[in-house]
């Protein structure tokens, strides 16, 4: 079972570059979300979606865009990378209520130099 | 200001003894609490949860206790095993749009053989 798949696993960007982190799930989950993990700060919500065509901002949305054209895919776009966006990014999906259980991808480690 | 806090960044326990991980929250609208376990280079995986209508939930070696008046929850692992060594995240969810999860900063548990 694939579950939640994130690509790439590692990425190095130069300041000002843009890129898209891919996330796909095969569990037909309505809810999807993106988190970033920084030391001592846990996971912080960037953007989330409660269904295809619907997205909303989380706690730290600045510098990121998302779209949800299909149930399966939820890409995260960095518009102009900054060193402050160096982090580990996790995509998660879940059923109607995410608090029942969320399934996470393996993460993308992004370094911005 | 962090709404979910794990004040102990790390905890070291001898194999076979009890591990107690603590978590405090400030938002009284949270009605569901979860613990996630994370190994290096992997995404978090769901461990156990508790609804605000309960004060205890048990699953094998893992028990979560909730004290609503103190806005405090704890995870007990008995007996602790070396394979339990990981980072544990406390998370909370309220009846907000998307029911997204708010995470604590994590506690690194080391179980020594």
- Helix percent of chain A reads under 10%
In total, the number of strands of chain A is: 11
Strand elements of chain B, count:
11
Rg of chain B over CA atoms, rounded to whole Å, is 13 Å
Describe the structure.
The complex is a heterodimer of chains A (113) and B (113). With 113 residues, chain A is mostly beta strands. Chain A has strands at 4-7, 10-13, 19-25, 31-38, 42-51, 54-57, 64-66, 76-78, 87-94, 102-104, 108-112. Chain A is globular. The model of chain A has no long low-confidence stretch (mean pLDDT 92). Chain B is built from no helices and 11 strands. Chain B has strands at residues 4-5, 10-14, 19-25, 30-38, 45-51, 56-59, 62-67, 72-77, 86-94, 102-103, 107-112. In chain B, strands 2, 4, 5, 9, 10 and 11 form a 6-stranded mixed sheet that branches. The A-B interface holds A 4, 31, 33, 35, 40-45, 48, 50, 56, 58-59, 90, 92, 97-107 and B 2, 4, 6, 9, 32, 34, 41-46, 49, 89, 91, 93, 97-106.
Short description:
The complex is a heterodimer of chains A (113) and B (113). Chain A is an all-beta fold.
Features:
heterodimer; A: mainly beta; four-stranded antiparallel beta sheet; 0% helix; B: 113 residues; mainly beta; six-stranded mixed beta sheet; five-stranded antiparallel beta sheet; 11 strands
Helix-strand layout with pairing:
The complex is a heterodimer of chains A (113) and B (113).
Chain A: E1 4-7, E2 10-13, E3 19-25, E4 31-38, E5 42-51, E6 54-57, E7 64-66, E8 76-78, E9 87-94, E10 102-104, E11 108-112
Parallel strand pairs in A: 2-11
Antiparallel strand pairs in A: 1-3, 3-8, 4-5, 4-9, 5-6, 7-8, 9-10, 9-11
Chain B: E1 4-5, E2 10-14, E3 19-25, E4 30-38, E5 45-51, E6 56-59, E7 62-67, E8 72-77, E9 86-94, E10 102-103, E11 107-112
Parallel strand pairs in B: 2-11
Antiparallel strand pairs in B: 1-3, 3-8, 4-5, 4-9, 6-7, 7-8, 9-10, 9-11
């Amino acid at each position: 079972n694939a579950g939640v798949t994130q690509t790439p696993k590692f990425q190095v960007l130069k300041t000002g570059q843009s890129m898209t982190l891919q996330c796909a799930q095969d569990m037909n989950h309505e809810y999807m979300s993106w988190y970033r993990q920084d030391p001592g700060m846990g996971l912080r919500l960037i953007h989330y979606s409660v269904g295809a065509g619907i997205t909303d901002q989380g706690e730290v949305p600045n510098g990121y865009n998302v779209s949800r054209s299909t149930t399966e895919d939820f890409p995260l776009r960095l518009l102009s990378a900054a060193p402050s966006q160096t982090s580990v990014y996790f995509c998660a999906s879940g059923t109607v209520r995410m608090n029942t259980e969320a399934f996470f991808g393996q993460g993308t480690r992004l370094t911005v130099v | 200001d962090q709404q979910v806090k794990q004040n102990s960044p790390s905890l070291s326990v001898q194999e076979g003894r009890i591990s107690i991980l603590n978590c405090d929250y400030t938002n009284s609208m949270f009605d569901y609490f979860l613990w996630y376990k994370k190994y290096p280079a992997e995404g978090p995986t769901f461990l156990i949860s508790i609804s605000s209508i309960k004060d205890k939930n048990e699953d094998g070696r893992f028990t979560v206790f909730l004290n609503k008046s103190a806005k405090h929850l704890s995870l007990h692992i008995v007996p602790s095993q070396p394979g339990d060594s990981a980072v544990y995240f406390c998370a909370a969810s309220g009846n907000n749009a998307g029911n997204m999860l708010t995470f604590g900063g994590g506690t690194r548990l080391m179980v020594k053989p």
